[in-house]
Amino acid sequence: MYYSILHKTRYRYSSPVRESVTEIRMRPRSEGLQRCLTFDVQTMPDAHINRYLDVYGNTVHHFDIPGPHRQMVITAEAVVVFTEAPDLPERLDVRSWDAIESATDHHQAWDFLMPSQFARPSSLLLELERELDLQRRDDPLTLLCEINARIYQTFAYAPQTTRVDSPIDHALEDRRGVCQDFAHIMTTLVRRLGIPCRYVSGYLFHRVEDHDRSEEDASHAWVEALLPGLGWVGFDPTNNLLAGGRHIRAAVGRDYADVPPTRGVYRGQAESELDVGVKVAPTEAPLEASEAEMLPSVAPISALADLSADMQEQQQQQQQMRERRGR
């Protein structure tokens, strides 16, 4: 299946700013059954755009607009192809808990096991944990599917009730929020079970027949847990889905702080206003791939034992990029 993605971001300033420096994480990842075939990003005002791979294998584009301007527009376009995924098993062997325990002793798993900026326990989170009776039982896959469904049932989807950088307590107290909140809550709960869990920023292709709760014209967020023999398995608590061929991964990290689609600063005394539009649609195979296809891709993880090698490779790639820029 081929998808085209258009992600348009516009910043308006109340008065001219003298300079703005921005980085974006919008290029879909090439890993597992997903491959980014083409990617292009343009800015207005025009800017020279550079790129690098961060420690988690995400492509980061960054640029500087030095002249005075009252607005900035970023337009990113991509074409992604998915290979049909095999069905997951209904459950894992109960001994999978032992496999998780032995494999996650390695320090490379710590990033996805430890609390992070937006995914950390609180008294309200612990209350939810007790309410859902979350403890190691059954098998890991069955329990994760239950957590995914219970978050969907417990929380209402309510746009504009929280912000992308809101603490999880806002959603926990009101029992409402958006995809970032639900992903942060699930990430925190899963890590407390000792299962490596990462936050995913990306896009979801919406179909009328699926009745998704998430907004069609916005980016999306969900989580991935690392399971024995399966690798990274995606769970979408906003829509009570297992992430599959409609979920397009752009960036992964410990939480939202690692993967914002845009992040930057500007010089000047001005208020900023942000507008974002996203369109994901089926498309035909492109005639040829762009230069972006030649970027190093992140190999899929087939089992927990591969975690260390995968993370080390990503760190080596980042170090090589830093060395090249320093020459």
Overview of the structural elements:
With 327 residues, this protein is of the alpha+beta class. It has two domains: 121 residues, Immunoglobulin-like (Sandwich); 163 residues, Roll (C8orf32 fold). 22% of the residues lie in helices and 34% in strands. The chain contains six helices and 15 strands. The chain has a five-stranded antiparallel beta sheet, with helices on one face. The chain has a four-stranded antiparallel beta sheet with strand order 3-6-1-15, with no helix packed on it. It has a four-stranded antiparallel beta sheet with strand order 4-5-2-14. β4 and β5 form a beta hairpin. α3 runs antiparallel to α5. About 9% of the residues have low confidence.
List keywords for this structure.
327 residues; alpha+beta; C8orf32 fold; 2 domains; 5-stranded antiparallel sheet; 4-stranded antiparallel sheet
The number of distinct β-strands equals 15
Q: Report how far apart the termini are.
A: 41 Å
Q: How many structural units, i.e. domains?
A: 2
- Helical residue percent? 10-25%
CATH class of the largest domain: Alpha Beta
Low-pLDDT regions: 290-319
Radius of gyration: 20 Å
Under CATH, the topology of the largest domain can be stated as C8orf32 fold
Strand order of the largest sheet: 12-11-10-9-13
Principal-axes geometry comes out as globular
- Helix and strand content put the structural class at alpha+beta
CATH architecture of the largest domain: Roll
Question: Helix tally?
Answer: 6
Largest sheet: 5 strands, antiparallel
- Taken as a percent bin, the fraction of beta residues is 25-35%
**Helix and strand succession?**
EEEEEEHHHEHEHEEEEEEEH
Overall average residue pLDDT: 88
